[in-house]
């Protein structure tokens, strides 16, 4: 046992130096060469500053709704609900979101509601919704804003982000960018 203790201490010191020092410097260096020095994508709209890479809460009927958050969009406490798909509290929460969505979108059938518009993401801060989640809200927004549905469909298409390298992930829409573009429509 004595012969292993010194090896274990050396390994601990090497890991401490690497993960607390070298790795940290590598990540910091990578952030410095990225856009905005690793501070995320900052958008200014109507005098307010927003981060496009963090989910924002949109519940006003004249906007596209954002994805629900298990942490109320608090970036300091990111995380999911940790409730399984058969948990009664979770099912009640999702059902309440479905009911609320249907009240505000009476032209939508329950079967047409994409899951991402009524379930929170793993971080609770996902700034994106699926293209289908955006399209299912078009009738409500067109009616409230007096905008042609075709114009809103085109707005969704122009704000759709493609999968990384065309392979990883799915098409998605950043809700903040979409709603800013919606406000800028004349």
Automatic annotation (TrEMBL):
<keyword id="KW-0813">Transport</keyword>
<protein>
    <recommendedName>
        <fullName>Potassium-transporting ATPase KdpC subunit</fullName>
    </recommendedName>
</protein>
<comment type="function">
    <text>Part of the high-affinity ATP-driven potassium transport (or Kdp) system, which catalyzes the hydrolysis of ATP coupled with the electrogenic transport of potassium into the cytoplasm. This subunit acts as a catalytic chaperone that increases the ATP-binding affinity of the ATP-hydrolyzing subunit KdpB by the formation of a transient KdpB/KdpC/ATP ternary complex.</text>
</comment>
<keyword id="KW-1003">Cell membrane</keyword>
<comment type="subunit">
    <text>The system is composed of three essential subunits: KdpA, KdpB and KdpC.</text>
</comment>
<keyword id="KW-0630">Potassium</keyword>
<keyword id="KW-0812">Transmembrane</keyword>
<keyword id="KW-0633">Potassium transport</keyword>
<dbReference type="InterPro" id="IPR003820">
    <property type="entry name" value="KdpC"/>
</dbReference>
<keyword id="KW-0547">Nucleotide-binding</keyword>
<keyword id="KW-0406">Ion transport</keyword>
<keyword id="KW-0472">Membrane</keyword>
<dbReference type="Pfam" id="PF02669">
    <property type="entry name" value="KdpC"/>
</dbReference>
<keyword id="KW-1133">Transmembrane helix</keyword>
<keyword id="KW-0067">ATP-binding</keyword>
<comment type="similarity">
    <text>Belongs to the KdpC family.</text>
</comment>
């Amino acid at each position: 046992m004595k012969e292993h203790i010194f090896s274990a201490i050396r390994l601990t010191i090497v890991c401490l130096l690497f993960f607390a020092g070298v790795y940290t410097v590598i990540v910091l260096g990578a952030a410095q060469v990225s856009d905005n020095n690793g501070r995320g994508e900052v958008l200014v709209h109507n005098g307010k500053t927003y981060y496009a890479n963090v989910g924002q809460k949109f519940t006003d009927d004249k906007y596209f709704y954002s994805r629900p958050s298990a942490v109320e969009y608090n970036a300091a406490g990111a995380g999911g609900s940790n409730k399984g798909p058969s948990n009664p509290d979770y099912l009640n929460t999702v059902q309440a979101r479905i009911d609320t969505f249907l009240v505000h979108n009476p032209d939508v059938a329950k079967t047409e509601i994409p899951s991402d518009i009524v379930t929170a993401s793993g971080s609770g801060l996902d700034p994106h919704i699926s293209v289908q989640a955006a399209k299912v809200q078009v009738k409500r927004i067109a009616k409230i804003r007096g905008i042609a549905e075709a114009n809103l469909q085109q707005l969704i298409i122009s704000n759709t982000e493609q999968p990384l390298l065309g392979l990883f992930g799915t098409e998605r829409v950043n809700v903040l960018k979409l709603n800013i573009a919606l406000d800028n429509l004349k």
